[in-house]
Amino acid sequence: MAETGSVTLELDDIQSGALHERPSPYVGAYLMLRIDDRADGRELVRRLTALVSSGTQSLDPANDAWFTVAFTYHGLKALGVPQDSLDSFAPEFREGMAARAEHLGDVGESSPENWEKPLGTPDVHIAIAVISPDVARLEAVTEKARLAHQELAGISVVWRQDCYQLPTGRTSFGFKDGIGQPAVEGSGRAPSNPHEPPLKAGEIILGYPDETGGLPPMPSPDILGRNGTYVVFRKLHTKVAAYRQYLRARATNREEEALLGAKMVGRWQSGAPLALTPDVDDPELGSDPQRNNVFLYGDDPRGFKCPVGAHARRANPRDALADDGSTDVRLHRMIRRGTSYGPMLPDGELEDDGADRGIIFVFAGAHIKRQFEFVKTQWLNDGIFIGAPGEADPIVGSSHHASTFTIPRRPIRRRLQDLPPFVITRGGEYCFAPSLSAMRWLAELPHSVSTEESTP
């Protein structure tokens, strides 16, 4: 148990992935499984429960791995969860990401018809994430997962993606990642930005009050919903060569190239935020977790330090929207767990080598619609909230048309035209990561609830 103020989280019942940072550096793997036999599916859940890391376990090097299990709507249905319970889940979860692709801006090259199979189809039932400090421990834990299902003929591994983090902690675009996560009340983790109090626990974990003061809608029965969280999984291919070519064509030298990239992202490649060092990179600041997230945007309303349309500022406007009173930013915060996949494009290389590389984006929160979907559609894909309706996020905005990006500066602003899509969606799923007690409940579902309504 962990307590902060009046909030006590049942950490020994909560999967660790939503509350704890990954080891750094790390290697990992994402697995998608299909259930063809209900009894085998329940037996697999029983075996996997023993492997799942709870929120009481710290991820120091002595531990094997961070092991998380989540289920799609079709997966819960395949296990025989009663229909009235299935109907109690959030509508977005029940529909699935592929059905909501157009709303999310996953169109054109990013549309589900172009996704990696079987992502986005009813054949994905269970999602497993394994993150470990090194290859040896990763292989040891993935072997345990393999042994858990190898004797179960009704279980198939239908998709796998290996991932990693470079020792620099940077993404394929070259920027340091994993900065700016919100702290969660009751988790025992202090906020990295003292200007931002911890989020109410119910914003991330079901069964606790959220920022509205009420309890978020929770699946029934209580044992199934409480201490669970929704998980959004997306595989995003990054067009690194196109990104580098775009910057090179619009910069007079390497220094300006780095500055333009920082203006688009909102941080320098080192992780140093423009809000604290707008003119030159500060690698020492960028590498200091005690300082690289300690800032707000309220003193920069016009974006002369960090453009209002920069990726990091769009994803988390902090106090920048406080004056208009129309948006409570804290209602749209979420836990992000991005990981990299594929080989890095060598430094300085401007030609695409044909390799698949990018980011596995994972979100955890209690509200798919007002957290992930709101940020994706209202802040990243659209510029209305910043007074620039024709501008999308310069890095991850909707890819169905070219966009523009405005860099405020004196005496004359600069506008980058014809921004092509740099990120393409390769697939995704809406999942639910239940508590450990809920996993035991799923494993022990009585045969009497295996009704016609709940057959796959």
TrEMBL record:
The keyword Zinc-finger does not apply. Residues 65-144 form the DyP dimeric alpha+beta barrel domain. GO terms for molecular function: peroxidase activity. Transmembrane segments: none annotated. Its cofactor is heme b. Belongs to the DyP-type peroxidase family. PANTHER family: BLR4509 PROTEIN (PTHR30521:SF5), DEFERROCHELATASE/PEROXIDASE (PTHR30521). This is Dyp-type peroxidase family protein. It comes from Oerskovia enterophila. The lineage of its organism: Bacteria, Bacillati, Actinomycetota, Actinomycetes, Micrococcales.
